[in-house]
Amino acid sequence: FAAPPDTLAVGDHPPADAATATAVNSDADAGPRSIAVLPFVNMSNDADQEYFSDGISEELLNALAQIRELRVAARTSSFAFKGQNQDISTIGEQLNVETVLEGSVRRSGKRVRITAQLINVDDGYHLWSNTYDRDLVDIFAVQDEISAAIVEALRVHLTDGELPTADKTVDIAAYNLYLQARHNVRSRTRESLELAVKQYQQALDIDPGYAPAWAGKALATQLLDETNYGDTPLPEAARLAQAYLDRAFAIDADLGEAHAAQALVFMGHGQYRDALVSIERALESLPNEGVLYAWKSQCLAEQGQYGDASDALEKAFMVEPLHYVVRRNWMNRRAGLGDADAVRAVTTPGTLDYYYAEWAIAWSEGRWSDMYLLLDEADKVPEASSWVDYNKGVTLWFMLGELERGQAEMPSVFGQLYRAISTPSEALAAFVPIEPAALAVEQRAIVLLAMARSGQCAGAGEVVGHLGLETRDDFGDITSWASLFDNAAWYAWCLRENGETDRARAVAEKAMAYTEQVAHESLLLRDYGDSYSLLQVVSGDPDGAADTVRTMLEHDWLYPIYLVVYPHYAELAKREDFQQLLAGLQQKLDNERQKLGWPPKALEDI
């Protein structure tokens, strides 16, 4: 994801003009206008019914989020406090809300008892509470009833004079399966996603007109493609997901969940403009989903709109600061810009977040050995997740010159990239059966890398022909290794290797001109300097390439791995001034390895 400039962060006060506008447009006696819906406690005898109480909480949250005058903390942020029994004032402070809704759900057969209470954060007083005993016939009517009571308690004056009400009815058995499936999708494992697909289908067997179940099945199917959590070929996953989405849209053209899933399908194929349209549609009904703003940031960055991408990521963090995807992208971005104080201000020592933040800060400061040591410490945290292994692999690969050890630490998805580096001919053979247009963006980048490294550049034109790299003027996100910009760099190199010097130089010069066009303060040479220096070599400017590399080395942004990956470095190595730069990088690598008690390693041995 791309990064953000300064807008309001959580806990900040709005500027004076915004505060004044709020006061002018509200009645003097208007009540609090922000709320967090905590996950309702499952009081049923069956602990497995927790998905149902979570579902009730989320449906209430979504209903309240439709009220323009009411700011609702996002699900991921409010659900972060599940089972923690924290003080209401502490929760309110962390989520920057004035009120908190909590409650419980007891389900027995065809009856349900829902208890809800609305609490003022400042003094802990109950603004409202009630208990609802109902038959499980129309659960949405109960949710509407509770939402209306909350709004009355908050004295919020609605723009249209009424609270949005459920215009849907669904068989309770289908709804039950839908909630179970949605719960499993959030676990984000292959097994849980495969189970979710089955549960969505079971819901649809009962009620084929239940649009949210079609949208959920599409999302789970897309997440099971070979670039995410499963092994379904990307074209097949996308085909199935789109078919399910078509069914959802035919029933409800405005369904936010369907537009969000559609955005994910588009992003998987690099159709970022289309994805952006779907995200905006999804946000109309899901305004408190911070991850949608993070996706929006990615789509904008992929189009070279770095300023807007930065704004979107800041918005994501403001809306949903505890969503791990949002939070970590925000921390990465701020750390990269040297704003370590802001990153540390939102973390607590000893937590996984703390280690993630410190790792990102160490990266920005060129402390490679500290990056590795921090991950060793993070691995001791009980909830340590796969990102520890992944980033340990990144550190070993990129910075410390340990490709084989790094590969062992990395997830299997990096196997293709490793083969493209170590045995490029074998990597190419694996992709022969796949139509070039059907390759995922990451797969296409790996193919081009393998071609350049193996000297088999003759087929490069077939791989990227459908991208129009020689005629286009925009090259996407220049900081992404799988972007059109990187594709252009590898393609230009391959044209040069094929003896087509003029065409190669034309592509290189257009791609370099694009970097000037999208220049923004959030761009870091760290993230595109290797490809840029390759383009400089292709365009006939080795002196400029050496200057680019020198700048990268001065900021600790020149990583040993890229001397292996990018073929132009071997060409630059013949220059005396570049030999001096390599000596500086060798000294840096030796120093960092020494801090870990590791023996020296020559750059040429990586």
Structure characterization notes:
The chain has 606 residues and is an alpha/beta fold. The chain contains 30 helices and 6 strands. The chain has helices at 16-24, 50-65, 75-79, 88-95, 139-154, 172-185, 190-206, 211-223, 234-251, 256-268, 272-285, 290-302, 306-319, 324-336, 340-345, 352-364, 368-378, 386-399, 403-409, 415-422, 424-431, 441-454, 460-464, 484-497, 501-517, 529-538, 542-554, 560-565, 568-572, 576-595, and strands at residues 34-37, 41-42, 71-72, 99-108, 111-120, 126-135. β4 (99-108) and β5 form a beta hairpin.
SSE blueprint:
Blueprint: H1 16-24, E1 34-37, E2 41-42, H2 50-65, E3 71-72, H3 75-79, H4 88-95, E4 99-108, E5 111-120, E6 126-135, H5 139-154, H6 172-185, H7 190-206, H8 211-223, H9 234-251, H10 256-268, H11 272-285, H12 290-302, H13 306-319, H14 324-336, H15 340-345, H16 352-364, H17 368-378, H18 386-399, H19 403-409, H20 415-422, H21 424-431, H22 441-454, H23 460-464, H24 484-497, H25 501-517, H26 529-538, H27 542-554, H28 560-565, H29 568-572, H30 576-595
Parallel strand pairs: 1-3, 1-4, 2-4
Antiparallel strand pairs: 4-5, 5-6
